[in-house]
Amino acid sequence: MTMQQPSNQAPLLDVENLRVTLRTAEGPFDAVRGVSFRLGRERLGIVGESGSGKSMTARAILGLLPHGGCLRADRMQLGDTDLCDLGDRAWTRIRGKRISMVLQDPRHALNPVKTIGRQIDETLCRHLGLSRRDARARTLTLLDAVHIRDPERVYRAFPHEVSGGMGQRAMIALMVAAEPEVLIADEPTSALDLAVQNQVLNVLDEQVVGRGMGLIFISHDLDLVSRFCDRVLVMYGGEVVEELPADRLSDATHPYTRGLIDCAPRLGQGRQRFKTLDRAAISLALRHEPADLPVAGHLRGVAEGLHP
Ligand SMILES: Nc1ncnc2c1ncn2[C@@H]1O[C@H](COP(=O)(O)OP(=O)(O)OP(=O)(O)O)[C@@H](O)[C@H]1O
Ligand SMILES: [Mg+2]
Questions:
Q1: What pTM, to 2 d.p., does this model score?
Q2: Whose atoms come closest to the Cα of 298: which ligand?
Q3: What is the pLDDT of residues 167-218, one digit of tens each?
């Protein structure tokens, strides 16, 4: 089932030359360095090693940078709304309503002191203007739509009272409740075992395709992204180094993408030394010195602390 948008349609999200600079003890640090992409009604994967800037790109799109963080972009457009210059009040009308985000662990992302039902009800009342009674009925329908077998029980449950897979389905229900145009899922299944992971992915897919949303799916797992997404961006050191149709990820040519593919373990390979990235070859391809890279810079500080 494909939902790629014909190229003549306007994109849901259009990001051009996005840069994010963070304030650190060592001075300004460029976590995202000129990222550009367009998102249609499709599943767009973002892969890359830890620290490559995947989450910071997502946070920038949601206007949620760490304190002191600064964002610049030539364009960051959601439909006809310019996201570059929004004030705090305007953001509250966008976040959760037109762009939502599913995070890795529902137990941290959901409010621990409110029941799951109340959290979804409140979103429906705030963003769709439903009455409490209508919201409750809609919440139960949403919980049913994400394949929760006993919606009444989960409606009354607190986040810590449900399993990881159930919590993740409840979070998907919460995040699609206001019918956003764009959903960002940041490592949504990394904390789940494989069988539950597949169930949650199927639920996510049903919701995204059924509602015609654009999905940004962030993951470390190249194999998963190649099976689940339509298109994939590969990030390294805050930049997009390669863009491919997801089902052709195995044909990637960039040394970094090839390195990531070669590092992935495969069943049946037997005991052998784990492969690591050849950073010198990647730097050569990018024409960066390794010291220029945010990850290298970040880790250098840690390494110096460990080895005085
Ligand atoms: N609050 C912060 N202050 C300073 N630097 C930060 C902060 N948050 C993240 N960073 C740095 O920004 C860079 C990009 O981080 P980001 O969280 O986007 O990585 P990521 O690709 O999502 O990694 P992971 O796969 O581990 O989630 C990293 O080098 C990280 O150390
Ligand atoms: Mg991340």
A1: 0.86
A2: 1
A3: 999 999 999 999 999 999 999 888 788 878 888 899 899 989 999 999 999 9
Q: What is the Cα gyration radius of the chain?
A: 20
Does 55 sit in the ligand 1 pocket, CB within 6 Å? yes
Q: Which CATH number fits domain 13-306: 3.40.50.2000, 1.20.1600.10, 3.30.565.10, 3.40.50.300?
A: 3.40.50.300
CB-CB contact of 256 with 242 (8 Å): yes
- pLDDT tens string 47-73: 998 899 999 999 999 999 999 899 999
Which residue, by CA, sits nearest to atom 26 of ligand 1?
50
Q: Is 246 in the pocket of ligand 1 (CB under 6 A)?
A: no
Residue 244: DSSP 8-state:
E
How far is ligand 1, taken at its centre, from the CA of residue 32, in Å?
9
Query: Which ligand 1 atom is at minimum distance from the Cα of 32?
Result: 14
CA neighbor of 233 nearest in space, from 218, 250, 221, 214: 218
